[in-house]
Each structure stands twice: as structure tokens, then as C-alpha cells.
Design a protein that fits this description.
mainly alpha; elongated
Length: 76
Amino acid sequence: MSKTVAGWLGFFGGLLLGYPAVLFGWVAYTNIADVSDMGGGKIMGIAFFFAPIGAVVAGIAGAVWLARRAGKRAGS
């Protein structure tokens, strides 16, 4: 597998895993810490701002990780 394909697969894999990780991490934190969110503003901020940022960061990390791994396997 080429580094480019591995990078893209890692990026999309990171996106798909990063968004729910941030979102459900916040939900778990609010349940454990008993944080009140009556109006839903906090979860909307997480769902539409912080979770997408976390997904992009996880996507970049996944792309770098898989591309480096593919490069080591190819011997380059």
C-alpha cells in the first residue's frame, strides 16, 4: 500500500473515530461530574465545534501514523 493511500485511509479512519470519541467523552464527563446543561448549549458547542476539531486532529494523527507505517513496510 502506498504512503498516499495509507495517509488517506488513516485520515478518514481518524475522522470516523475522533468525532464520537470527543462527543461521547464529553457526555461521559458530564454524567460523572454531574454538569447541568438544561438549554443544550454546551452539547451543541461540543457537537458542532469541539468534536469536529477533535476529529480533524485525530484524522491528521491517523494519516501520519499510517503513512509512516506504510513507509516502513515498503522499505523507504
